Records
---
Amino acid sequence: MNSKPVRMNSKPVRQQTADTPFAAILEDNIDDLYDNAPCGNLSTLLDGTVAKINATLLQWLGYTRDEVVGIRRFADLLTVGGKLYHETHYAPLLALQGEIAGIALELRAKDGSRLPVLVSSTVKTGGDGEPQLIRTVVFDARDRRAYELELLRARQAAEQDRERLQNLVSALQASLLPHSLPTPPAMTTAAHYHMASPDQVGGDFYDLYPLDGDRWGFFLGDVCGKGVEAAAVTALARYTLRAASVYDADPVAVISNLNTVLYQEYRTSGHRYCTVVFGVLSSPAADGTRTAHIAGGGHPAALLTRSDGGTSYQDTTTGPIVGILPAAAFTATSLTLHPGDTLLLYSDGIIEARSGGPETMFGQDALREAVSTAATANAPGVIAALISVLADLGDSVDDDVALMALGVSGVQQP
Amino acid sequence: MVVLSHGFGCDQNMWRHIVPELSRTNRIVLFDHVGSGRSDPAAWDESRYASLDGYADDVLQLLDGLNLQAVTFVGHSVSAMIGVLAANRNPSLFSALVLVTPSPCYLDNGMYHGGFTRDDIDELLASLDSNYLGWSATMAPVIMGNADRPELGDELTNSFCRTDPAMAAIFARATFLSDNRADLAEVSVPTLILQCTHDAIAPPEVGAYVHERIRDSQLVTLPATGHCPQLSAPEATASAIGRFLARST
């Protein structure tokens, strides 16, 4: 009987007659299969001492049978890190489950070289169910490990790319918002931007800026859609509003101008419409009162908290969505802001958060409730209360949210 | 009252072979450390659990939360040192410590032989990286967040000792790079040290070192091999703990 291993590539495959395959199978006896299998075979006592090992594994390790059997434990054949892993994971799991499969370890050969392998073990029990020995098979995993390293590198590259993308997105998002919100005399102001996804730039925007004297322009809007194309339109909308208000701060003129600019792009693939509230704060009267002249296109109603604690939505939606009609008609409305009053502008991301499951939105009532129960009713207090609402809503906020609060404090600040 | 605290690499399942015996005469508390087993992933905090102090704080919080006193704390492997830190911080809560295969320092350091070098620990971290042991990013929240519904995780290969590899790597560093030798002298409660005849992680010299440094301690060498005598020799382990409990409480 031929005891030499049959090597697949050693000879060209001959044309076989009808009875040769049968003869070859007869020749492949069990002992030879064990000893020269294309994997390592190993049996150990329960304490890990090697009791039986096949020729394939000995050849990989470079040891003779006498150097291993009865002398070394399975863990001794591993690298030190592998031994630690064996003692903390492999052996406990094997003891608990009676088997363990496909664990990646490294053998350490006699000459110090390392061989990546995949190892599986089962505990053999006797008739009484008591464990007797551990049977282990070891597969050469050099190619597999090289492939996994490629996967690991690809994953690391993907993570780096994602990090770069997120940096880019947050930089782009920041460029669409004021670096810091100014505080007009005798007012409090605060704003917050909540990004729904770190991977995508959103289309919400806001600003507050001086016009002339102590008059201030402000706006908050939402370009439909997300991503770079929406961001381009957001930038266009923001600069169009600011530039137009420099020439003529009449809110109807400013918002009509934006409507014309956005509508000009109507037939292009980059066309986006938006909703916006634009306003001008007048210089304060002697008692600190300011008037806000406002025009709004398709945007949710602003929320006004009075100094006496009453909180109500104001009719600030004075025209259609901006950019979809060639000649949209907008009107203006005026709000009087007394000392202690705070006006909140917001985008629909907060009221459309799916707070009660897919069917239930957070809604305007809950927003009013949150604002009216804010610990402090000035602008920073209102924004702080809503930041904590957003934190509680968590993942149910699936769109970006912009918030800006303008409060008249009535006390001239130094 | 006996609190059983698992070590690095597994979870409270480590104790399942000795719990039946110990629970005949004692009330038992089992738990998974944060970052292991079925602990709540939301409780994970990378900086808190980067050192053994975070785990020791958790043990004290656990005793406080369950209003436990006169506790015998049984800590395996790294949990032995977690128990030492907790008992040193508030000795009044502990009546005894059982340190199963402890090591106060795994790294070689001058004349002290912990058994490992920094490179060895890096090798272990690489092993962790290439073996997710049944953990998958998509299944993890299901497994870890549903302690009351273990069947949710049954489709994965290994039903015990699943760990998020990122958390395991931080626990591994906290475990194998810590040096708690100075804490041993502070131990003021009766202490039993259990070691095995052959243990690749905590060799007998390290067990002897721990015994020498803890004043009121006794050292028992179990006729067992490996690092986990509660699995490889559960009867001997349970009876050694049982004898100690009978004498110390």
Note: Chain A touches chain B at residues 46-48, 73, 75, 79-89, 91-93, 95-97, 100-106, 145, 148, 152 (CB under 8 Å).
---
Amino acid sequence: MNLTLRVWRQEHAQISGAFVTYPVSDINPDMSFLEMLDVVNEGLIARQETPIAFDHDCREGICGACSLTINGIPHGPNRATTACQLHMRFFADGDTIVIEPFRAKAFPVVRDLVVDRASFDRIIAAGGYVGVSTGSAPEANALPIAKAIADRAMDAAQCIGCGACVAACPNASAMLFTGAKVMHLGLVPQGQAERSDRVLRMVDQMDAEGFGGCTNYGECHEACPKEIPLEAIARLNGDYLRAALSSREEDAA
Amino acid sequence: MQLDAKIPSGPIEQKWTKHKFDLKLVNPSNKRKHSILVVGSGLAGASAAASFGELGYQVDCFCFQDSPRRAHSIAAQGGINAAKNYQNDGDSIFRLFYDTVKGGDFRSREANVYRLAEVSANIIDQCVAQGVPFAREYGGLLSNRSFGGAQVSRTFYARGQTGQQLLLGAYSALERQISMGSVRMFPRTEMLDLIIIEGQARGIVTRNLISGEIRSFLGDAVVLATGGYANVFHLSTNAQGCNVTASYRAHRNGAAFANPCYTQIHPTCIPVSGDYQSKLTLMSESLRNDGRVWVPRVQGDRRPPANLPQAERDYYLERKYPSFGNLAPRDIASRSAKEVCDEGRGVGETGRGVYLDFADAIDRLGEHTIRERYGNLFEMYERITGENPYHLPMRIYPAAHYTMGGLWVDYNLMSTIDGLHVLGEANFSDHGANRLGASALMQGLADGYFVIPNTISGYLATAHPTPIDTSHPAVRAAEAGVAERIKRLLSIGGSRSVDSFHRDLGRIMWEHCGMARNAAGLRTALQLIPELREEFWNDVRVLGVGESFNQSMEKAGRVADFLDFAELMCTDALHREESCGGHFREEHQTEDGEAKRNDHDFAYVAGWEYRGEGKAPLLHKEPLTFDNVPLATRSYK
């Protein structure tokens, strides 16, 4: 396959970037998208040009490191597929492919296609956990959880923290990411004690990081490689409302 | 150098309890006066850092990824073993211990393995309490499945993403401590050297991967949880960033490296498709619960699988190992696949593949059940190969996956350097010469949640480290060494990329130190590796500057260490004149091609001491005794 790539190049966060065009030839359709970039980089190195920086690690769709917007869509055109699992057979010979980093104010560019997603870690640190120190756990089977509930919790817990939801959202909202954790821990009995506190603190942190609000476009779900359901956002809103009202009641009392 | 394992006295069932009582404690108000550096944030590192923080120590945790949640533990698929005996099928701590010692082909340390089995049940309790959504039965209780090398169902799982869910549990515990200020987290920060002062590990030199800044961190103890070295093969199931650098730097500073030749080749991976290949994708071993492995009976039979009648198929694992069948341990399953492909009976374009067929299971259980059990794995397979495994059998082939060898540690998980502790895949202790499926997650979390939080206090209470700061000459010297090496890599200005060297090294290692090894091949490798290393240091091309985000630079340092380490691995493989577990020496096999151990001469841990560049490493032996699981020839027939 022969392709034309238009790739965002930016040396660091403090200067502006621009698209650079690279003609690419002899691409094998069985390559993954990142393997195609490897081949491009080998060519750049051979010509003494700085290779394109991009985040990647597991290359099997689970670590959440890869963060490419391909032809305007985070992770590219295939449903439920990270960029590392996208294969070149889904493109046609002669295509022009535009590659950008995940764009959001809360994800500053580090270099080229690499962004800083530490804001996600800070949202989890604000409350995305069950406060159980090592050694204090009761016997695992002492607390049965209906299979249907455990399965729903797992649907939400599958989030890989890649940030495609934010990159896809016209508001750069992190509601699907935050909602996925709120839904996971809100469904299981272990998460109940901190449920109100958790949602209030995580939403506060989300706002402080500069993510936008949700206006129900649903683009996040479409882009999500793990198909986190929009129900996560509904649950986040529900929990937030309940927590905000009850904490006001507690303040009044 | 002495390899004193410091195994507590007494019957095996009481060693850990007794040892915990005997260990000196650090009182709660003194804990905050001690600082601990944890390198790595996978299952072992994150669980250790979180647990230290909960206990009240000051913790600095480092990872090279952009977030601790991306450590490669995240990719473990199948499950985690624990001796809960929820299935009432005869499991016990002793049986898990027994299976692990036997599965490791009698090359692990009994006392460590027993402790691992002993704390396994606590791990499940801890993870469930964190909200990890394990698979459940309709009654709401936890579900189990079987894994290779065991005849009981003791594996807990969360769909095909068990590692992800366990890591996110440990990560959430870690983030909780970060928010409470007891752990400082340094992502995109890579350890490039170890700092030793007065014989004690006291710090690390790091490179900030965004700015390129070289910075030292000091503490009272250093904990390495930096994973395995399977990427020495270039193509492996490991993440691209997995590397041996932290372990190898510790080795150069005096930590013995144990059994580097023990590597695990996983039987069920998607076969190589081309030269551009950057990684091999694992298909979980859990698939062997319902998938049947076969190849055509006759060599060169290229008919599509559906056209082969049952009588013309060879279900070779079921035939050779009737009692374990498709669930034979990994080393045996891998070698058998290699054998049938060597005989010319392999399938797929390259002939390096075997079928993993679900047709019978779909007939028996229905597509719905199979989808529920393995849906995400089937999707992943289809995404990569373009073939639908509900209709066509999968094609699989072995690939480098896990490394049982690692830095030598004693019962307290301390290396031969005082204060340097090593956890998880980075150490050597629990899996012998072959790891059983679903035991890596167990070991990582056992080390991090339940072992090191106890044993570190024994060290800190007695070590009396002297107060130091970063102006200490040893710190300055280590920093200068790191800066010098980076400068050197950038100034070579050769003609070949870092990746091209990594690829060449991988080919040498896979060919000569892979699934089957022999003396001639290993000697060839020991000649080729130094030549390649020489070429690397004269002709590698690393563009850009050190003071910036520079991925070629990062990788150059890692490949340079692999080039050194590969030689150690081959040296170890050449010296071990026996076959055991994942280490198969062609000269040492039984008449029917099974591994032939030599307990008389080789029932020991090989701990290698670094003696300087260009000098042969020195072998030290820790004899292994088997008082509780009698030495026997492993049989899965």
Note: The CA atoms of residues 70 and 77 of chain A lie 7 Å apart.
---
Amino acid sequence: MNKLLIPALLSALILGCSSTPVPDENGAPVESRTGGSGSGVAPVVAGGVDANGLPRELTDPKSKLAQRSIYFDLDKYDVKDEYKDLVAAHAKYLVDHRGFKVLLQGNTDERGSREYNLSLGQKRADAVKRSLVLLGAKEDQVESVSLGEEKPKNAGHDESAWAENRRADILYKGADGRGEF
Amino acid sequence: MHKISRRLFLVFALAASALAQAQLSIEITGAGASRIPVAIADFLGDATASRIVTATVRSDLERSGLFKLVDTTGAALDENTSINHADWRGKGADALAAGSIGRSPDGRMEARFRLYDTQKAVSLGGAAYVTSNEMLRAAGHRIADYIYEKLTGEKGVFSTRIAYVVKARGQFLLQIADADGQGAATALTSTEPIISPVWSPDGSKLAYVSFEKKKPVIYVHSIASGQRHIVANFKGSNSAPAWSPDGRRLAVVLSKDGNSQIYAVNADGSGLQRLTQSAGIDTEPRYAPDGSSIFFTSDRGGSPQIYQVAANGGEARRVSFEGSYNVSPRPSPDGKMLAFITRREGRFQLAAMDLATRQVQVLTDSHKDESPSFAPNSRMILIATEVGGRGVLSAVSSDGRIKQRLSVAAGDVREPAWGPFYQ
């Protein structure tokens, strides 16, 4: 069942990628469908997929969409201005790729009640979700959940570690169900 | 279903290897003001078995902080020996227990004992417990419970069990141990966090939150069979389960409708009902022991505080007022007190409120207390705290006087839950 679906989905993915403008700096071409660049033929770069089966533009470090973390101030859950562009880029991707889904994971620093922090992390993920939906992502493309204080990015116990841990992460899943969650 | 049972098989295979390094050790860091002097004579009979039972009874009573052990060197007594009460009074003992271990007709061990009040020179009664060799410590706990109840007037908790989560080498282990930290067994191993375990009132199941699906999902796990099922896996986060006193329902926190709110659900996941309606965070529900109301944490007033609402919802009433951060409410099983975590000058400390007078007492001087859990007799509160940068468990008496620390050699211990009375 899965085996039959993969070629169809792969080609859907490739079509999907080439239909949106791919930034020049977006990663090494994995496959060139033109097989050469004869004069008058614009080379088309198919993005290819990474180990999770996701288009490389989502994971290539040179792509803006590879930036998946939004940081928050202490006890706050509003998306700061400096992250508006990043959220907009992800919203656009979801608008252009309706088969794709994201899981937003809210996180907090380690101080205080685990369960209360879980709810606080939920508020952070919800704030990002609201922005994405406002910018055109569909409700059913976006799920916001919380990891509370349970999955610190930085295991330290000082302000710089805590700042790194007050965060919402964006995880992607493709139309074929493969991805990061 | 298949998937779950396969995963569980792996879990149990892993559990065996993790067991050795995850034994809890207990250290007593404070004792009661006046302790009852009690003499526990060495049990007679099978020497090895007697040593185990005698040592278990003694360490249970001593660890409680309510008893002082009187030296019994040289005494050879069993449950049938006639007692010279004046002698024992002379040694300073207010009470004396003497017993023996023998073989019961079916080949198992039988621990028999009698307890005496040396002041009144009377027997306070006695009992016999039949047990397998592996369960001799359990017999010791039962004897200690008997002595504790006869001498203090309240039920002992030495035969109870505790659950907690160990984080070690990137793994999370949900463990169950005897109340003295011995006999730890791993119920669940995961590479993702496990939080908020709570015992069903009959002690046969745990509800908890596992992140194994990359998000918080609530499970109910039958301890003896290892079978488990999902109670709540709605869109968003599912967390903070709390059993109703009859064990039929769970209060849970779901964010499916846009914000962490409190719902009630049957233990099989059916019959969902929303209980709170607020624009803020509502979480950490706990049923009052009579089942009529629920204590919970909410930031509806601007800062996290403790509130109380009827068990089927309605208007909430604020319970905590001092300070800007009061969370994790836990009513005592006798309904008289409320334990919670309060932030004072940046330190998170265990506090207890007398529900009749609303007086609050801070019980610890630590800085990172979390997740209080009452012993079923309401006398002790188990918390997670931090010592030397490591997560440990601490048991604190509800008057703050008696303190014990439970730690694991190679890992963080957190999320304690004290189980119900032995049934």
Note: Chain A touches chain B through 26 residues (CB under 8 Å).
---
Amino acid sequence: MIQNPTLKSTMKAWLYILPMMLIIFTFNLYPIVKSFAMSFYTDYNFYDDVVLAYGLGNFTTILQDSDFYLAIKNTFIFVLGVVPISIALSLGIALLLNQIKFLSGFFRTVYFLPFVTSTVAISLVWNWLYHRNYGLMNYFLGWFGIEPIHWITDPDYSMLALVIMAVWKGLGFNIILFLVGLNNIDETYYKAAKVDGATGFNRFWNITLPLLGPTLFLVSVLGVINSFKVFDEVYALFQAKPGPAKSTLTIVYYLYEKFYTEYQYGIAAAAGVVLFVIILAVTLIQFAYNKKFVHY
Amino acid sequence: MKQVLETPAGLPPAKRASWLMADAGMADVLKKGLIYAALSIGAITMLIPFYWMVITSLKTPAEAVAMPPVWMPDVLQFGNYGTALEAAPFGQYFLNSVLVTVVSTVGELLTTILAAFAFAKMKFYGKSLLFTVLIATMMVPGELLIIPNFVTLSNLGLINTYAALIIPYLASVLSVFILHQNFTSVPDELYYAAKVDGCSDFRFLWSVMVPLSKSAIVAITILKVIGSWNSFMWPLIVTNDRMLRTLPVGLQAFTTEAGTKYELLMAASTLVVLPMIILYLFLQKYIIMGISRSGLKG
């Protein structure tokens, strides 16, 4: 019927997308450009939105700030802690769930539950679980003769506390994606393998894992991107502090402090740009790796 | 939920199960037992924080800090909820959260449905370029946008208003993307036939497309409601007025106000978490569908 756009059809279509575009342009597109620009504002009066000087000053400042390096280091430790543990656990659980029928819906519901809850509320609950004297965590560890750990106040344990909570909270999301991936694997592969006498481990290693490649890739990309942006968990678990001795200061927390408590807009924007570049670089590396090793 | 997860490529669950049990014997029974044991241990681990939250909220202050821990208090202290509600304006926080969630969800649905329809069915200049640009914006971390958005809203004089909490969230590229996928799968023939019959685009959208894509719309609605309800960083930044706080911001502030009264803190946390858990339990198949779609195609 109508195969080519006309001026009339274009006008009409633009009318349909106008409300969405107004919001997206103002609060998504424009700010992307603006925040890159802001990272070069070295003298800025935000009340009047007047820029008095431009330069690379913000970048040289953060690159000389030991706190910023600490934030990058902490963020990488967090990502490298959460993503692999979460993938291993959720893949294992999804494989088990895939082998049962009775109660599998119930288990799925339970594992996914933390995902729908407020990060702030659940972080407060974990803060309570981690309490050095009255927390359940230390009580359970006490069964094994482990001395009470100061999870929230000891810089050596605060990151571990954060990672455990984040893995717990994100597990259900990954399990759902793995279950979808597992259901997309054609059963005939397994039947053929069974006829050929392949063991359970062989079937997992030679069929499930390769065919699950795209899902594994997706889960790791989403996991990495989300983990790099960690903020709410830190803020709520450590009661509006970046952990004891800044031990859980992350890049977004650094950005928040520069922006909201120190009014250093240019520096905060520069930190945001660095975060974006890091996420982009890591995602591109993952894509390159995917292309090389994952076969569809 | 079953139907959603069993994609066309797989066999129906019944068939798979019978295949798995083809050579059932003692070894298989043992294996099944181990699987259930492992999954149960995992499930208990997932549930303990929730149990501990609820049960602490029903304890006396002495029971809350008792060692060894009290697993079930003698008398359930429901009064803690009243005390928590009086200790901070949680009623107001609750209303604020409901208002922000409802308005931004309804608004986002309207903008999303209109835009997704235009991208899926209408012909116009600049369509593919615009769509590509929109998809590309999803790559940028939202945290980067907070600073310029704060400046924009303060220039508009909207800091410390409900508008600041709502307006930036009246549209979402991800939702447009998910719904676009769904709208595209509605056959073009249906659209052209309706046009021939003199049905306007607008009427076709609301009386054919929307009902046909009901489950996708429910899915993006719920994901939006959950996201909006739990949103923390943005409301924290754009509101200083206590009476404008949403539940997560109010709850976080309450930790300094309540100090070490853990039974009250846990009562307040329960109040924040409970509505979304109820919503999830009733509508989980849509949530899971939404996640599978946005995850697998995004």
Note: Confidence is low (pLDDT under 50) at residues 1-11, 14-19 of chain B.
